[in-house]
Structure formats: structure tokens, C-alpha cells
Amino acid sequence: MTEIRRNLITGEAILFAPERASRPNAFVTDEVCPFCPGNESLTPPEVVRIGDPWRVRVFPNKYPFAGWHEVIVESPSHDADFDAVDAEEVVAMYLDRYRALAAKTDVRSVMLFKNHGRAAGASLDHLHSQIAALTFVPPRIAAESNAFTRAISCPVCDAVSTHRVAGLVIAENGSMIWLAPHGSSFAHQQWIVPKRHVHDLGALTDAERRDLAMLLQSAAKATRKVAAAHNWLFLAFPGVAKAHCYVDVVPRSTNVAGFELGTGTFIDVVDPAATARILSER
Q: Which domains does the chain have, with CATH numbers?
């Protein structure tokens, strides 16, 4: 049973879920992958699927850290990469599950995220993402919400134009732009940003969903140039009209060390201009 505890000084929420200690081997039986077709009985009963036979499948996490915590398996193929799947279908499922969880009573924040590779926290190699609904606003979302609210103009909208001038745009399409943020916290960090000012993922249009899927596939492929593992995080700000939602893509080529843990301040060792140049090369 997950419990919300509090930092003794700041009062920030900490999720205490001791059952997850057995997670790395929780699903593995004689090297059988529970996410592969034919092994559906090894997971909790599914919530929804696309296709029959299925192409995308969603079910509750067997070891949740939140009251609503789901796994989104993005391909029936065990060895698939994200740039080889029907990303439009997958992103449509992301947004459908986001809207469904965000509508639940007492939910204050929904986090959609991918851990790809062991260095990024994945316990299984089969392509998947996760989505969790929280009854509190986590510190990062709270801090960025406050910053958006205080800002004279939207810093993300401003970044769309300034990053073009600075050569930090990796690629763009009709409604989305993929950039290397000037103030990156991690080496080769990337953001995928709606060009339209929109604060909540649930408000993305069908065209924006398609364009996002296209750039997510490009980012997944390009990121393999710089790291075998990566995370992506969908940052949304429901109820904060001045905020701007975006996707944060973080290659895991370096570790968080003592200084970062002690201060909360990150050290980037790669110029974002180099990131834009490397990742934009086809």
C-alpha cells in the first residue's frame, strides 16, 4: 500500500511504496516477458487495448506507487523501438489515458513518463511508458506553475523564437517544435513544445497530437546517438492558464551525483548548440 509521507523541513510529498522493492523481478518468470502477446495473464487485467490482436495495451501497474498507476505497452514486438511503431496510435492512447485519469475525483496532477533502458529506471526492456495520477501537485510542477504565473510573458512561447535565432532548434513541423533548451539540466536534454500556447495536454488537438507523435519518433531515434537509455516526461499544468505544457526528453549519459543531490542544482557538460547540431543530423 502506497503512503504519502512528508519531507520533515519542506513538507513536500514523498511516496513510500516498499512493495516496489521487488519490482525488477516482479514480472519475470523463466525469462518470459509479461508484455509480449500470449503472456497477458502475467499482468493485471487490462484497462483498454487498440486492435485485435492488440497493438497497444494498457493495464494497472502490478506494483503501483499511486492510486492510479498504469502501464502502456506500445508494441506487441519485444524488440521494437519507438521510432518503428505507430506513434500516432500510441500518443492517442497517451492522451486518452491522461484525460481519463485527470478527470478522477481528487486527482491534482497526472504524470506520463517513459523509462527506456536500465540506466533510465526500466525494469523490463519491452517498449512501454507509464502514467500515474497523484492527489497532490509534485514539487517540479508546483515550482514551474508558480514561475509561469509570475512571468510577464510565457517563457516557453518566448523560447520558440529565441531558440531559432540561437540555432538551438533541432526540428519542427506544423504545430510542434523540438529544441535543445539553452538552460539544459542534463547533457543533450531536449524539449518538444507546442507552438500554440496551451497549458494542458488534454487540450491538444488532433493535428498537434499527430505532430507530437512525429517529433517523438525523431527524438527517440536521434537520442540513441548520444545514450542507450532515456526518459521522457510529459509536463502539464491543468488550471494554470499562463503555463505551457511540453515534453522533456532526457538522455541518461551522465549520473546525478552528490552536488546535484545536495543542492538541487544541476551541472550540464554539453553545450545545447552541440546537442542541436548532433541530433539534427540525419
A: 3-134 (3.30.428.10), 139-280 (3.30.428.10)
